[in-house]
Design brief:
This protein is α/β, with parallel strands linked by helices. The protein has two domains: 138 residues, Rossmann fold (3-Layer(aba) Sandwich), CATH 3.40.50.2300; 58 residues, Winged helix-like DNA-binding domain superfamily/Winged helix DNA-binding domain (Arc Repressor Mutant, subunit A). It is built from ten helices and six strands; from the N terminus they run βαβαβαβαβαβααααα. The chain has a six-stranded parallel sheet with strand order 2-1-3-4-5-6, with helices on both faces. Helix 2 packs parallel to helix 3, helix 7 packs across helix 10 and helix 8 packs across helix 9.
């Protein structure tokens, strides 16, 4: 027999907290036949369980998830399998989010505002063992590092960064506690730690520091 065996599609675990959004991305990824979405998850804990059971080649994951963030979920996956290839796919276009994701070990970062074919290109690129960052985000990151201290937020934990992001959106401590399934006192403690780490003495100064880090354009 001289024919070649059919090439197996790239297996993908798709993680996003909106079922309708996941359905759209599944159709987009599977349209060409090169990629197969083997499972979907709406939160970090479900994603981790599926990841451990199915061992997908690529994890396409949103940063903003209910409870544990996508970046923390990424870190947990890397503890299980250090060579894991995770592509972060997020609504956040601010360079600081891409920087945090790449520092945590993501193989790439794609904004949800990108053209539809960009996600497919990114998955194929990551599957080939290459890091992916679209040209516009790469330029934004390079420019941001020129005008902002790129290490200013490096000392923040994943949870602290989540809290800072929500504070920058204008959410109250009680609202953040509800969103992250935490006690209000815990969120207040994170806010105090953020002030100390970012050199702010008041809530207003903390918001100014968030803006300086590139979180000013975040909206609910």
């Amino acid at each position: 027999m001289t024919g070649k065996s059919a090439k197996q599609p790239i297996s993908v675990l798709l993680v996003d907290d909106h079922a309708v959004v996941r359905e759209g991305y599944r159709r987009l990824l599977e349209r060409q036949g090169e990629i197969a979405v083997v499972a979907e998850a709406g939160d970090a804990s479900t994603a981790h369980a599926l990841f451990c059971r199915l061992n997908p080649q690529i994890v396409v994951m949103d940063i903003t998830l209910p409870g544990t963030s996508g970046i923390e979920a990424l870190r947990r996956m890397l503890l299980v399998k250090p060579e894991t290839r995770v592509l972060m796919f997020s609504m956040h276009e601010e360079p600081i989010f891409a920087r945090r994701a790449l520092q945590a070990g993501a193989f790439g970062y794609v904004s949800k505002s990108s053209a539809p074919n960009v996600l497919v290109q990114a998955v194929l690129c990551v599957a080939g063992g290459k890091k992916y960052l679209d040209a516009e985000m790469a330029r934004s990151l390079a420019f941001r590092d020129l005008v902002v201290d790129p290490a200013a937020a490096d000392g923040l934990s994943a949870r602290e960064f989540e809290v800072l992001t929500l504070l920058a959106r204008g959410q109250s401590i009680d609202q953040i506690a509800q969103a992250l399934s935490l006690h209000s006192k815990t969120v207040a403690n994170h806010q105090s730690a953020l002030k100390k780490k970012l050199g702010a003495t008041t809530a207003i100064q903390l918001l100014k520091r968030a803006a300086e880090l590139g979180l000013a354009r975040i909206h609910s």
